[in-house]
């Protein structure tokens, strides 16, 4: 890919990284601020309360997916990406200044809830806008590689969050962290979002969006539910292929630290370090797997993930519970994330490749957000519910079952690697625009 392609990928990824830093530090610092907003009950009950608000953010993601997906299809990918980071900055600032229970009673929890609603709106549109942007901004034959930076940047955001947590754990006492130290990452997130806002104001629009004139979607229907309904088969496909992947991803990322601390009995510092090291390796795997999909196709990687997750989730989670120390926990975490890479590295481009340009952002955003609200956002809460009920192993089977459902979809879906993004949905017999002809020649060469 050329310098201009990499510049677009960098700007799109940098914003995504900050978005997901803010999104994930809520989960990773929940053990420190849960008692500040919900002082009654045992540790698991407090975490369930904060996890419930975490899940509420996911249920706003379909609204954000619809709203910002519409903006992305009608006003451009750049406009949607700029708006998402603005919302995220505001939500991080709200959490940073939210009053505790001792100051405002449950008023602090209400502020926390509003902030999570704003985050849900933002991330609901961010995923689709960045997935669409990265896929369209890449060179022909390199879409898998380019779109893999979706999860590189998402994971980098979490790595930064965990890295900051490790620094704070080693420089602050537990009392300070529980008292006010947990506010620091949200201040950092708000400042980072301001920087990204400036970068995105100067980013370039994708050529595919600017040049595609006739893709089968009427100008007035671009980014509308009417146009999406015309592609309802692809929309339902996005929900089904997301189901297994999002449950597995959130299990081995946002929930992993809590699981190692609460269930496996590892010290919080050790659990955080395991997650931090595993995620660094996970981020490095994404471009390798994305490039592999450009050579052999998307379906082989998706099928490998689903088979591995279906068969290995129960034994991996069972052994993690009895890992006992850093190295066994790290090895098992890496094995789990290696399996998940088959989904995360390419899911962005697979979804974008299903839809024509005029409905691509909304087509990715709304179905994906619905799937995340139903399965990703509730994963942590479901896991804690099983634990609180004394049947924690039931959650392992739940994750494996979701992967099995997605496996059926992967085995029956079409391959999307060689689809021309500018021709998806184009009426039969329509002339190929000059830019698309050049892309086709580049791809063939």
What does this structure look like?
The chain is mainly alpha-helical and 445 residues long. The protein has one domain: Up-down Bundle (Growth Hormone, Chain: A), CATH 1.20.1250. Helix content is 78%, strand content 0%. The protein is built from 22 helices and no strands. α2 crosses α3. The longest helix is centred in the N-terminal third of the chain and has 31 residues. The C terminus is likely disordered. Pfam families: Sugar_tr. It is a multi-pass membrane protein. It is found in: Cell membrane.
Write the layout of secondary structure elements.
Layout: H1 3-28, H2 30-37, H3 43-59, H4 61-74, H5 77-97, H6 101-104, H7 107-137, H8 143-147, H9 149-171, H10 174-179, H11 184-201, H12 207-211, H13 225-230, H14 232-252, H15 256-262, H16 268-296, H17 299-321, H18 326-344, H19 347-352, H20 360-388, H21 393-412, H22 434-444
């Amino acid at each position: 890919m050329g310098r201009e392609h990499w510049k677009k990928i960098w700007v799109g990824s940098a914003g995504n990284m900050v978005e997901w830093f803010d999104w994930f530090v809520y989960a990773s610092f929940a053990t420190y601020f849960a008692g500040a907003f919900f002082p009654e009950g045992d540790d698991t009950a407090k975490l369930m309360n904060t996890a419930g608000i975490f899940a509420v953010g996911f249920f706003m993601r379909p609204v954000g997916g619809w709203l910002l997906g519409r903006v992305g299809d009608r006003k451009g990918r750049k406009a949607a990406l700029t708006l998402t980071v603005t919302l995220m900055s505001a939500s991080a600032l709200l959490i940073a200044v939210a009053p505790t229970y001792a100051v405002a009673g449950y008023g602090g929890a209400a502020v926390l809830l509003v902030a999570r609603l704003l985050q849900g709106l933002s991330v609901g549109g961010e995923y689709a806008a960045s997935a669409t942007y990265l896929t369209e901004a890449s060179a022909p034959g390199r879409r898998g590689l380019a779109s893999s930076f979706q999860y590189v940047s998402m994971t980098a955001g979490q790595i930064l969050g965990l890295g900051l947590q490790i620094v704070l754990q080693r420089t602050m006492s537990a009392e300070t962290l529980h008292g006010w130290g947990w506010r620091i990452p949200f201040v950092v997130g708000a400042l980072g979002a301001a920087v990204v806002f400036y970068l995105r104001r100067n980013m370039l629009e994708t050529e595919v969006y600017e040049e595609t004139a006739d893709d089968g979607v009427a100008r007035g229907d671009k980014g509308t539910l009417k146009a999406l309904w015309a592609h309802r088969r692809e929309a339902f496909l996005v929900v089904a292929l997301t189901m297994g992947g999002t449950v597995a991803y959130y299990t081995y990322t946002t929930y992993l630290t809590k699981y190692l601390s609460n269930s496996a009995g590892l010290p919080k510092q050790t659990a955080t370090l395991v997650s931090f090291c595993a995620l660094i390796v996970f981020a490095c795997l994404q471009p390798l797997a994305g490039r592999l999909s450009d050579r052999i196709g998307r379906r082989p990687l998706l099928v490998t993930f689903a088979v591995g997750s279906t068969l290995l989730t129960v034994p991996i989670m069972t052994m993690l519970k009895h890992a006992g120390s850093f190295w066994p926990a790290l090895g098992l975490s890496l094995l789990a994330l290696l399996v998940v890479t088959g989904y995360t590295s390419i899911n962005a481009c697979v979804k974008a490749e299903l839809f024509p340009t005029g409905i691509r952002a909304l087509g990715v955003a709304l179905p994906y957000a619905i799937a995340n609200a139903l399965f990703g956002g509730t994963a942590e809460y479901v896991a804690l519910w099983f634990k609180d009920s004394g049947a924690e192993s039931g959650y392992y089977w739940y994750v494996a079952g979701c992967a099995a459902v997605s496996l059926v979809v992967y085995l029956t879906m079409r391959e999307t690697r060689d689809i021309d993004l500018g021709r998806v949905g184009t009426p039969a017999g329509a002339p190929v625009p000059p830019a698309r002809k050049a892309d086709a020649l580049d791809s063939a060469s």
